[in-house]
Amino acid sequence: MDASEAQFSSSQRLLQITIFDALAFLAVFLVGAVLATALFSRKVNRRRPWYNMLVSWLVYSASYLLLVGFQGDKGPPFWFCFLQAVFVYGAPPLAAFGTACYIVDLYLSVSSLHVVPRKPTSSATLVLLFIPWVAFISVIIEISILVTRDPSSVKRSPGLVYCHLDTTIQVTSNVALGAIAGVILVPLEIWIAILLRKSRTKCQEFEDVNPQSKQLSLLIRSAVFTAMVLIGVALNITACWLNNQRIVIWSIFLPTAPILLAISFGTQRDIMTVWAFWKKSPTLSNPPVDNTRRVQSQPTDLTSPSESPC
Predict the structure, then answer these.
(1) Predicted confidence (pLDDT) at residue 158 exceeds the cutoff of 80
(2) Contacts by 68-77 with C-beta closer than 8 Å and gap 24+?
(3) Segment Disordered: which positions (predicted)?
């Protein structure tokens, strides 16, 4: 153990490791449950960037569990610590860009409710699906090069909860990637809010046909979660950059971002309906009004009830 690790008593360290692992396991379980519900239930339909975002956050959550069983004084083998360092640095950009691309897809879908149709094409959707993984692979390549030059840079964090690199080069790279994702996220969320306000009537017509898709609710969920994503990425970068007790204590809460994701998107009505399987669907006393004709003129992906962006 080096000097930074020796400053923690065994009881403090055990408590921090226990909290960190418990939160990481909870994040994997919750995000996995929401993703599995959407994948295997016919009642839940989402666009592919939504699924891609959840997969990216599932990878983020699981990355912190790779060191379970090697968080004691003895430590993991070098190759194992290197493997987790790859995911610890690669997962935040993956999750950040996964969220950013989801917001871009949401913007394209919502903007189609306005004056100029901007239906997301298949090629555009594929680009949005690949961008997060390109960022992830780029980070993996960069870390591999850095470790090849200096293998001794691979170390465990001061709290022993995960492995990282004892260098500022990769942290600087992650800061740049996080800033790019943030620049994409924040303006688009603001513009989506403006579009929803201008297209309130059209949004209401769409919600009449698709009651499970509430755009305003979706925007609020996305905005709250985006704020937490930016805080989480900043906390992750700070925890990797600074090695002191205060940061170590805060770093145990790194898995909370995917937990908030699961709560934000897992509490939507159609997903909750799947879990409330013991409740029967309410029967309507009057037949529903056919509003399809009102929205058929809108050439938008949102008019398809089989694929909701939210």
Answers:
(1) no
(2) 68/21, 71/17, 71/21, 71/160, 71/161, 72/160, 73/1, 75/156, 75/160, 76/156, 76/163
(3) 286-310
